[in-house]
Amino acid sequence: MNQDKIVADNVTMRFGDVVAIKDATCNIKEREFVAIIGPSGCGKSTFLYVIAGFESASGGRIELDGKPITGPGPNRGVVFQEFVLFPWRTVMENITLGLDIQKVPPKQARKRAQKWINLTGLTGFEDAYPATLSGGMKQRVAIARALTYDPEVILLDEPFGALDVQTKNYMINDLQNLWTEANKTIVMVTHSVSEAVLLADRVLIFSARPSSIIADIEIDLPHPRGAEDEAVRDYENQVTRILSAEVDKSMSMERRAAA
Amino acid sequence: MSQAILNHAPAAGRNKLFDRVCVPIISLGIPLLIWEFLSRSGLINDFLFPSPSQILGVLWGKSGLQFETGILYGHVYASMMRLLWGLFLATVLGTLIGMLIGLTRWGKFIFKPLLSLFMPVPTLAWTPILLLLIGVDNKTTILIVFIAASFEVILNVIAGIENMNVKVFWVARSMGASRLQIFFKVIIPGIMPYLITGMRLGSGYAWRALIAAEMLAASSFGLGFMIYEASEFMDMTTIYGGLFMIALLGFFIENVLMGMLEERTTRKWGVQVER
Q1: N or C: which end of chain B has fewer CB within 10 A?
Q2: CB within 8 Å: A84 and B165
C-alpha cells in the first residue's frame, strides 16, 4: 500500500477550558479518500483546519509527508461548506486564482482551469459572476478552484452541507468520477453517513466531546458506488450504529450542561 | 460579508421610462406651475418668490452659453473642483486610515479614539480654525470637503474589513498567497463595495458642507459664495437660481457619478452593502 501522507499523533485541541479534541490519532495514506464523521460540535472541522494549518493544535503531533504542519500552504487545497468565492471575480477568475497567485501566465492558467471546469460541469459559465450562480454551481466552482492549482491534498469541509437534498444527491453522484480523476489524498468532513460511505475509502468516526477517533472503517467497494447497493447499505448501517451511540452521548451531555 | 442579489430588469421599457422620466416631471412640474401662476398673478410677493421662469432666465443670463456674462460656469467649476479634490483626498487618506484601524492594532490604538472624539463635530465648526490657518483660499474649502467626506469613508472601510469572512484569507493563504498578494487580491477588492458606499454618503455630506463653507470662506467664486453675495444685494432670483443649481448638482454627484462607480463594481458583482 502507499505510504503515509498525513500522520496525526495524539492531537489535542483546547479552546479555553473546553477540550474539543483529545488524543486524536490516525494515519492517512497517499491518494486515499478519508471521510471524517461525528456528532455535531465534536471538533471534526477543527481537526480539518489543523491539517490545513489554519489552526495549530494545543498538543500532539501532526505531520504531512513526515514534516510538521506549521501553517497553510499550496500543497493543501480547501473547499468550505459556504463556498467562500470571491464575488468580484468571474467563475474563470476564481478558479485561476491559485495559479494567478503562483504567477502562472494567464493563458496557461486558463488552459489548466478548463480541464476542471469541464469535469465539474461548469462549461459555459466561465464568465459568470458567482452572485448569479445557484448553491450547487458555486460549490462546483470552489471544488474546481481547489483542484486547479494542483495541491497534493484536498480538504473538504462539509462540501455538500449547504445544499438542498436534491442538489446534494445529484452532485455526489455527478462528481464521483471527479475524485477518481483527481487521484489525490482527500480528507472530507461530513455529518452524512451516506455521503461518507458512497465516496470514501475509509471512514473515521469521531466521538462526542472531548473527541477522539473511536472507529476506523474501511469501505472495501469499487467506485463508482450506487446509493441503493446492498453492500453500501450494510456499511451505512455499521457506521450509523457506532455514530448514533455517540450522538446520544453528546445530546445528553448538552442537556446536562443546560440543566 | 455581504448579501448577494440577482440583477435583472424584467420591467417593460415603457413602464421604466414612465417611472424615471414622466413621474418626476409631473410631481415637480405641478408645484412649479402653481408657483409660476401665484407669482405672476401677484397673489404672493414676487420679490420674495420670483417666478420659476424668471429664475431660469437669470440662470440662463449668467450661464456660459451667453457671451460676456459666463459667470455661473465659474461658480459651478469652482465648487465642483473643490468637491472633487476634497473627495479625492478623503478617499485616499480615508481608505488608508480605515485600513490601519481595521488591520493593525496600533492603528486602532492611535486613530479610533480620535475618530470617536471628532465624529460629532459639525464640519463647519472647523472653518474658523482653517480660516486662521490658511485664510480665504481654495485649500480651506477643499479641507472642509475632506473632513466632511473622510469620516464616512473611514467608517465604511472599517466595516468592510470587519465584515470579511476569515475563510477568505484562509483560501488565499492555502494557495500560497503572500501578505502583499492578500492585500491586493483580497483586501482591496473586498472593501471596494464598502468604500464606494462611503464615498457616496461622504460626497453628499461634503457637498452640503462645501456650500455652507463657501459662504464663510470663499472669495469671488463658488455656488455658496454666489448665493451669499446675492443676498447682500437682495437678489432673490440669483439665490433661488443658486439653490436650484446646488440641488441639481448634488443629485448628479450622489446618483449619476457615484451610480456609475457602483454600476462598474458592486452591481456587476451582485454585492450589496447593508446599511
Answers
A1: C
A2: yes
